[in-house]
Amino acid sequence: MNQDYIKPDNWSIIEEGFDAERVKSSESLFSIGNGAMGQRANFEETYSGETFQGSYIAGIYYPDKTKVGWWKNGYPKYFAKVLNAPNWIGIDVEINEENLDLNTCTEIKNFRRELNMKEGWYNRSFEATLKNGTEIAVNVRRFLSLDLDETGIIKYEITPLNKDAKIVYKPYIDAGVTNEDANWEEKFWEPLEVKKGTNEAFVTAQTFKTHFKVTTFMHNTIFANGENVNISPSTIDSTTDRVQFTYGTIIAKGQTSAIQKIGGYTVSLNHENTLAAAEKTIKTAVSLGYDALLQNQIDAWSKIWEMSDITIDGDVKAQQGIRFNIFQLNQTYLGKDSRLNIGPKGFTGEKYGGSTYWDTEAYCIPFYMATKDQQVARNLLTYRFNQLDKAIENAKDNLGFKDGAALYPMVTMNGEECHNEWEITHEEIHRNGAIAFAIYNYHRFTGDYSYIPEKGLEVLIGIARFWHQRASFSKDKNQYVILGVTGPNEYENNINNNFYTNYIAKWCIDYAEEQIKKVAAEYPADHKRILEKVNLSATEIQAWKKVANDMYFPFSKELDIYLQQDGFLDKDLVPVKDLDKSQRPINQKWSWDRVLRSPYIKQADVLQCFYFFEDHFSKEELKRNFEFYESFTVHESSLSPCVHSIQAAALDKMDMAYTFYLRTSRLDLDDYNKEVEEGCHITSMAGTWMSIVEGFGGMRVKNDQLHFSPKIPKEWKGYSFKINFRNQILKVSVNHDKTTFTVDGDQDLTIVVNGNPVIASKFVQIN
Q1: Where would I find the Glycoside hydrolase family 65 central catalytic domain in this sequence (predicted)?
Q2: What CATH architecture does domain 6-65+82-308 belong to?
Q3: Is 359 marked as a binding-site residue?
């Protein structure tokens, strides 16, 4: 744990006291979003201290030219940047002719931030003394509307405490922004048009290269003691990419002045005329008014929490952690648009680029399937189907594959590979397996098979073709091997026969063949259409099966465990417990050469296979492999603690499971990896949800039924969660004495609890 300043609270993230060293971390932690856009918790007023300014729009990106490696054939030509969008939150403030800047105030008292997760708003308040001696109290509330998802609202209130004050508000919108992360220091936005009205303004700009057009807008209203003073700006300053209004007010000591600012974006992804759409959006928001917009926000979040909330009784930090994770997931993606996906930083930062990693299929889909309508998860699968042609192009043009073999990108915005590390881009090919597994997992959980004949089978065929061509036959082993890969453990590059990669390759081929047979039997028209489209023959399928049936898996007879890859036991096997703590995290302290030669594992690798394919292995096999590999795992990936928590719970290692749960749930809140100022780890947050539901709750889907083996950490009095299983809502409540299963509605649901069939109805209690 690196920091411990967030106050424990069941429903809010709270910071008390101003500390300039924490500003960038808090900008990440207090970020807000609504699925369509989001922003870091930057101050609205000027701040001359260290800050990471960031606002982001879903689906808007820039192809930043790759800085290294372009001499290698097949190397991605660009790294897709999550774009820092035009700034609409800015409000410069002058008080008695001095600029308000917390970095220069002589005193700051009662500084407090709150991110209210229950109601979906962010609040900041403080008292400050300026250099001119004026003392003020400030309260700022901001939220991004879930209902009007192109709209955000700021209410900025100032109360002079020791004298009357002339307060000047200077709200602005600015498209002249740059990215914190840019390869060539290029500008990404080209200004097109500025339009100014009485109290509203618009800046339309488009991205270079990708030509996304965005209209950034604002509408301002000035209040005194809660009453609209109906004033217009005294001056309007504008350039080709910026508009700033000036409003001068006089307010008496103890009275409250306020500016209410409505702002946001309309984008060409959704509108042919973004300016007209922005004008309409302002009109709608103004007609509703602040109070109605806030109440609608509260109501919208109430509906989300009704289904997705997890309650924990007796452990406030654990409760705060899971709600923070669920809140950020819902801020990032709500499933409304199949063109969008879940970026690893969401709307909280720019690191990693791209909007889609294998994290979506491996970690996020289970959360969205169980807490929302199944259409949301289906949209995520459709996203990949829509990019199948690009995956085939990627395999063909960059790697020389043929005949429709598909390699999905490690990182993408539009289906093209846009990651710029060779050992990840072209070696971490296991992501293909996660995409196929997600199709299987969707059918297993929802019971909806229709996706496979309609779309999924084509994806499975492309992936099977890739694995068939990627494997090579070893005469020495008399088996098929897969060489030159990076497994989930990115602290090993260019290794041979990563167990997880080989295993999921075999599974993908077997699963694709099974689905071809099933579609042929049950959907003959789709079968005929697909096989003709992809030109698939029985002979080719037989060739696939030969690879799958004769796949090599590295194994140690002495230790009776699967080996992470060939040669793993040749390393200096010093367990993590014997590693000097001053050397952690090793990715920040060691050279990359030293990391690669070490036995240390970034995240679940062999154990990722045991997580996906738990039923393929015995509990004894899991125990042996878990105890061996966990001892070398440094958990320097956000995706690591959740898998280990789930498996520790399955092995009745409850203290370990609880420790891993706290680490995954509070990874960002407590900044375990010392990097939260760069943004939060959004996709791994779904793993936190899995740690409770699949770990402590023991939920599995087997033979079309929900199975549970509930357990509870000794630190908790009880916990509860809901599952939307095939359009039936099941609530599970666990304490140390009993587990209660409650089904919404009158239809019973047959479940299996600790191996015993149970008919769950409106109330079923298992002692």
Answers
A1: 323-690
A2: Distorted Sandwich (2.70)
A3: yes
